[in-house]
Amino acid sequence: MGMITSLLCSITLMAAADTTTCPQTTMSTEAADTTIVTDTISRAPSSDHCSVELVVDYPVAGKQPLIDNIRTYIADEMESFYMTHIYGDGIATPAHYEGPLSDGNAVVNFHAEKILADMKENYQTFVDSTGMKDLYMMNQSAIRKTSENDSIVTYEASSYQYEGGAHGQYWLEGACFNKNNGERIEINIDPFDVTDMQPLLREGLEKYLNDNGHGLTIDGLMNGGIFLTDGIIPLPSAAPYLTADGVKFVYGEYEIGPYALGTPNFTIPLEKLRPYLLKE
């Protein structure tokens, strides 16, 4: 737990300052030694029955090997944006970019066009199997720099995909990097501590429910006979990740509540989670 412990001190000291950085909309012209300079690259190719919106905060300058590691993360993450072929073999077939990762425009262009081509193939399979042509498929995906201070930088990847039916599917996940050595920081929580963590998880989930006005309560979820039936809020299936404000927990759709609940997420201060972190 050495890396997390040392970062805990830096993050705590910076809590009084406004260090969270919103997603970039233009490329910065100046950067301090610890700043990640990004170019927001957007692409939106479409056809008569399919559309793609892909937005990426691509690092163009900063400390090495941090920049290389973030670029690799982005390239890998974009492969997760390809849709599952629900009208075909039921699997996704992502394309792999082979060019230099230093060219962010080439990386984003490649995947935007490949995702569209893949979606058009999926659409045609749907038409061939059903005879219906009025379906419109869409893929809205993004990888954004959402949090940063002098010690860490956090990226979040999200995707909304619609292939037909009552509604689409949305997911969100994140990754944090140590700005000093460029390594990705993993938050590992002891699953056997989930019972002891209930006050923290309950507080976070209650805040999400209140802030988003869902009209749902934790007790209602627990007593509904479908979700949280054992009276325990579980750890999310996606790994929690570090931000400048603490550790962010994100639950998937249907993971702890109905579709209307969305993707519940909340942040717990790192200091409060420290007793439950597994030692490295």
Structure description:
It is a single chain. The chain is of the alpha+beta class and 280 residues long. Helices cover 28% and strands 24% of the residues. The chain contains six helices and nine strands. It has helices at 2-13, 66-78, 104-130, 198-212, 218-223, 270-273, and strands spanning 37-43, 50-61, 137-148, 152-162, 169-178, 184-185, 241-243, 246-250, 265-268. Strands 1-2-3-4-5-6 form a six-stranded mixed beta sheet. A three-stranded antiparallel beta sheet has the order 7-8-9. A hairpin with a 2-residue loop joins strand 7 and strand 8 (246-250). The model is unreliable at 9-32 (pLDDT under 50).
Give a short summary of the structure:
The protein has 280 residues and is of the alpha+beta class. 28% of the residues lie in helices and 24% in strands. A hairpin with a 6-residue loop joins strand 1 and strand 2.
List the topology elements.
Elements: H1 2-13, E1 37-43, E2 50-61, H2 66-78, H3 104-130, E3 137-148, E4 152-162, E5 169-178, E6 184-185, H4 198-212, H5 218-223, E7 241-243, E8 246-250, E9 265-268, H6 270-273
Parallel strand pairs: 2-3
Antiparallel strand pairs: 1-2, 3-4, 4-5, 5-6, 7-8, 8-9
